[in-house]
Amino acid sequence: MNRNTLTIGFLGLSFWLSSLPVTASECTPRQVQPTSKTREIVNQEYSFRFEIPSNYQTSLNRHDSPLRIEIKNPGDVAFEACMAEPGN
Question: Pairing with 47, which of 22, 72, 87, 88 sits 20 to 30 Å away (CA)?
């Protein structure tokens, strides 16, 4: 097999691969309206409490700081989950 045949073979393979459909899902960030119903978040260690919309999520992190509370819109949670899927 000479070098020209090998080069043409690789070009043909790359054109064939580029014509395959892309199967990755499309992740689109969106904001979800907060519900009028709320729930109370209580932290006994730091003696605080506050209310958030019942459809929002919270997480407590202690990276590089004593305390960090994240309050996330459901649309952000869905977007992060989509981006974590293989192929995205």
Answer: 72
CA-nearest of 87, 52, 48 to 72 is 52
* pTM flag (> 0.85): no
Contact 59, 67 (CB under 8 A): no
Segment-wise mean pLDDT, segments of 10 residues, the chain, 88 residues: 48 49 71 94 89 93 80 92 88
Q: Is 46 exposed, middle or buried (0-12, 13-18, 19+ CB in 10 A)?
A: exposed
State how far the Cα of 73 lies from the Cα of 75, in Å rounded to an integer.
Answer: 5
End-to-end CA distance of the chain: 39
| Sequence-distant (≥ 6) Cβ neighbours of residue 57 within 8 angstroms | 71, 72, 74, 77
> Would you mind telling me the total number of residues written for the chain in this entry?
88
pLDDT score recorded for residue 43: 86
